[in-house]
Design a protein that fits this description.
With about 700 residues, the chain is an alpha+beta fold. It folds into 4 domains: about 35 residues; about 190 residues, Penicillin-binding protein 2a (Domain 2) (Alpha-Beta Complex); about 350 residues, Beta-lactamase; about 45 residues, no CATH class. The chain contains 22 helices and 27 strands. The strands form 8 sheets. Strands 2, 3, 4, 5, 10, 19 and 20 form a 7-stranded mixed β-sheet that branches. Helix 3 packs antiparallel against helix 4, helix 10 runs antiparallel to helix 20 and helix 12 crosses helix 14. The radius of gyration is 37 Å and the shape is flat. The termini are far apart. Its main location: membrane.
């Protein structure tokens, strides 16, 4: 083969390989375009644009009186498109960028203006279209930013991008914090009302189309979401904001005084089971700082101690084992069962006393002797009745975290010869404070036991979605005859027994103290002595409206007895609730009004407030025929309407200081005050034109 032929063969071979490769490329292109076209087009779209979820605004949580306990407010992430239409021209951008930078610095005060200017210039040179300026910007700040240089050109020309997010806030801070709770979907945590009603509160997420830009950042294509989110529903709780404040304040004060580990207070409306206040505080560290870290009121399942004696008395009296007037020997305050000695707190015991007196002084010996002697041969007769009362079951609360009660039976593995006598006075069993409260509330509620309520209604856009009614756990816990005896016993504790310190001459309290020794971990009762002080009861005793339980764990300073530790908390809260609830003044009669009788003096001021007070006392609030502050039994009374006209002197004579300062301040005047009481004179005549900041002397007497 000559050289020419050899060369041609090589050329043809190379050319053939190239042609084959070209056909292979074309075939692959056709395959990709036609056969796999849809797949790769979808992949391309997903890499450049995609839909992301837009968080819905969570629903509000309200107190019973309409106060906001939890709400969502919008927060914004402010970004900037440095290549927006209005600033494409370098001249426009560089003329105004310094002004924008110094306005941002003056507004946020987080960095000097020259740093803002340098960052914006650098971002411009890098052609960034989604440059982060500031996170966590409020709506008021956003409104101000829209007026800044460049940004005031508008959304598309000025390049400002505001990405809305929702922030959860609690207007009353730590008030009922653990009951309000939180919901963390990522951690799977559901606490309190936020967690229990998350399906309602969370709403429905929306969809927004975003585009990937340089640097792997996803930027919204449109200002508004393509699918708008649906805001969550509102929860109307049973909490009374004033009672809640009282409960937390009284509890924290006593915990600090006693240097206790933790404590809780629970206030419930007798007839409905609505929880009006629930306070929980835990000692945080060595210092006397207390925080809401755990909901002891519903979750702390522990031995209740003497507050459980109510159930023991109820069952035994219902079975006819003894009556209140039956006498019993407390045997010097000591009673031996097997090798265990049960003692009374009073050294030497109480001698021979009635069972009523034994309950009032909280004799352990008396109730143990009665329960043990009457039920030792058939203990299931006693324990079965405890279970019939539903004391061994969870109550099915509306919020998560309810502790599990424990009421032993003879079939329990840990049952022993000591279990029955121990149970008689609140040991070898476990109950949560809310379960003990439900039992006492049932006595106040004429025998009907109802499950505590934390939520009364769910609303969406003002319309009711769901309404909750009291749920009956036990229609009748005992006979009416036994019920009356229980009420007499509970009142006697406060009148003549361990709860004397709670006695109030204005109204009656009924309840029971409980001082229980707490086991010291694995050491049991042989370790360091720790006590739990509690008081559970209701008020006013003659016509109960509220029931309450107070529990304080391990008071280390001063007394550890319930009357000294839990009692003052109960008394303080009950006193303040009673003072603020006119409906509980059962002996208050409507005033008998005679023509032209002079009303009690009421200062001028807020018209609606005066009308509300008069209405509460049965006085007709508005008719035009009577003279001011005089009662006309046929037509009612009139009120002076306070009118504020900015720029002229208002009439504040007859007002109290607070209202006078409010009116004068809103009229543009600067008041100078002399005296106290009610305004009797003012230095400027009513209706006189004034300049802002003009001084006015008001004299009070």
């Amino acid at each position: 083969m000559n050289i020419r032929t050899n060369i041609l063969l090589r050329v043809y071979a190379a050319f053939g390989v190239i042609v084959l490769f070209a056909f292979a490329v074309i075939a692959k292109m056709v395959h990709v375009q036609v056969v796999e076209g849809d797949k790769y087009r979808a992949m391309a779209d997903s890499l450049s644009t995609k839909y992301v979820e837009v968080e819905a605004a969570r629903g509000n949580i309200y107190s019973a009186d309409g106060s906001l306990l939890a709400t969502s407010v919008p927060e914004y992430e402010i970004r900037m498109d440095l290549l927006a239409g209005g600033i494409e021209d370098d001249k426009v951008f560089y003329e105004k960028v310094d002004s924008l930078a110094y306005r941002l610095a003056a507004h946020f005060k987080d960095k000097p203006g020259f740093k803002y200017a340098r960052l914006l210039r650098d971002a411009r040179e890098e052609r960034q279209r989604y440059f982060l300026i500031k996170r966590n910007v409020s709506y008021q700040d956003l409104k101000a930013l829209k007026k800044f240089p460049i940004f005031n050109l508008g959304r598309y020309k000025g390049g400002m991008i505001a990405v809305q997010q929702n922030k959860r806030i609690f207007p009353f801070r730590d008030l009922a914090a653990r009951t309000i709770g939180y919901y963390n979907a990522n951690a799977g945590a559901a606490v309190g009302l936020e967690g229990a009603y998350g399906d309602y509160i969370n709403g429905e997420t929306g969809k927004r189309l975003v585009q990937r830009i340089a640097g792997g950042v996803w930027m919204p294509i449109n200002e508004d979401a393509e699918i708008a989110p649906k805001d969550g529903a509102d929860i109307i709780s049973t909490i009374d904001i004033n009672m809640q404040d009282l409960a937390q304040s009284a509890l924290k004060k006593q915990l600090v005084k006693s240097e206790a580990d933790f404590g809780c207070v629970l206030v419930m409306e007798v007839e409905t089971g609505k929880i009006k206040a629930i306070a929980n505080y835990t000692r945080d560290g060595e210092e006397l700082e207390y925080k809401e870290k755990f909901n002891y009121a519903i979750a702390q399942s522990a031995e209740p101690g003497s507050t459980f004696k109510l159930a023991s008395y109820m069952i035994a009296m219902e079975d006819g084992k003894f009556d209140l007037n039956d006498r019993i020997d407390t045997e010097g305050g000591k009673y031996k069962v097997y090798r265990h000695t049960i003692k009374d707190s009073h050294e030497g015991g109480y001698g021979v006393i009635t069972m009523k007196q034994a309950f009032e002084v909280s004799s352990n010996v008396a109730i143990v002797k009665q329960i043990y002697n009457h039920y030792k041969d058939e203990p299931e007769e006693f324990t079965s009745k405890l279970h019939d009362l539903k004391l061994g079951e969870k109550m099915g609360l509306q919020i998560p975290g309810e502790g599990s009660p424990l009421i032993k039976t003879p079939e329990s593995k840990s049952w022993s010869g000591l279990t029955l006598p121990q149970m008689a006075y609140g040991y070898e069993l476990k109950m949560t404070p809310v379960e003990i409260l439900a039992l006492y509330n049932a006595v106040a509620n004429n025998g009907k036991m109802i499950s505590p309520m934390f939520v009364q209604e769910i609303r969406r856009l003002g319309s009711t979605v769901e309404q909750f009614k009291p749920r009956v756990v036990n229609d009748k816990i005992c006979s009416d005859a036994t019920l009356e005896k229980l009420k007499v016993m509970l009142e006697g504790v406060v009148i003549d027994g361990t709860g004397k310190a709670l006695n109030n001459p204005l109204y009656k309290i009924a309840g029971k103290t409980g001082t229980a020794q707490v086991a010291d971990g694995s050491k049991g009762y042989k370790g360091k002595r720790q006590y739990q002080a509690s008081f559970c009861g209701y008020f006013p005793a003659e016509k109960p409206k509220y029931s309450m339980i107070v529990v304080v764990q391990n008071p280390t300073k001063g007394s550890y007895y319930a009357a000294d530790v839990a009692g003052p908390i109960f008394r303080e809260v009950a006193d303040m609730v009673y003072a603020g609830d006119i409906q509980m003044y059962s002996d208050m009669k409507a005033p008998k009004l005679v023509g032209n009788t002079r009303l009690p003096k009421v200062k001028d001021g807020h018209k609606q407030s005066a009308q509300k007070v008069y209405s509460a006392f049965g006085i007709k609030p508005y008719f035009a025929s009577a003279t001011e502050n005089d009662i006309d039994t046929n037509n009612g009374i009139t009120y002076k309407e306070v009118k504020m006209n900015r720029g002229v002197v208002p009439d504040v004579v007859g007002m109290g200081l607070r209202d006078a300062l409010y009116v004068l301040g809103n009229s543009g005047l600067k008041p100078v005050v002399k005296g106290s009481g009610e305004v009797i004179t003012q230095s400027l005549a009513v209706g006189t034109p004034i300049m802002k900041g003009t001084k006015i002397l008001i004299e009070l007497q």
